[in-house]
Amino acid sequence: QVQVVESGGGLVQAGGSLRLSCAPSGTIFSINAMGWYRQAPGKERELVASITVGGITDYADSVKGRFTISRDNAKNTVYLQMNSLKPEDTAVYYCKYNAYWAVYWGQGTQVTVSS
Predict the structure, then answer these.
(1) Which of 30, 61, 93, 101 would you call most buried, defined as having the most Cβ atoms within 10 angstroms of its Cβ?
(2) Phi/psi class of residue 42: alpha, beta or left (left: φ > 0; alpha: ψ in -120 to 50)?
(3) Res. 88: pLDDT tops 90
(4) SS3 21
């Protein structure tokens, strides 16, 4: 069973930066898109950013201009560069791979931004 695994979370002060990575444990065929989601305590999981196989990106309004999603096609790895972090960015961040036959979710990585 292939899994996708996030890394790069942690504790950072407001205004700081973090870079999240997500990679599969094996080969995933026919990936259509990848995305990053987050879920804060007491809130629903929300889309943060997504990127298609063609490189088209989309961002939540709350992170536009601060976060950048990118991918390494050779490694099937997706990244989320997060700059100018705010306390309200505190959440568990999940990566998601949309493939033709299946959807893969990571276990999540905690991002905590202190004020």
Answers:
(1) 93
(2) left
(3) yes
(4) strand
Sign of the dihedral defined by the CA atoms of residues 24, 29, 34, 37, in that order = negative
Distance from C-alpha of 26 to C-alpha of 54, rounded to nearest angstrom: 22
pLDDT, tens digit, 9 for 90 and up, residues 17-72? 999 999 999 888 888 999 999 999 999 999 999 999 889 999 999 999 999 999 99
Encoding tokens for residue 34?
A: 């990848």
Q: Residue for token digits 């998601």?
A: 96
Count, in order, helices (H) and strands (E) of the chain. 0, 11
**Assigned token pair, 69:** 């999603």
**Calculated CA dihedral for residues 20, 23, 25, 27, nearest 10 degrees:** 170
Neighbouring residues of 67: CB distance < 8 A, sequence distance ≥ 6: 48, 49, 59, 80, 81, 82, 83
Burial of 106 (0-12, 13-18, 19+ CB in 10 A): buried
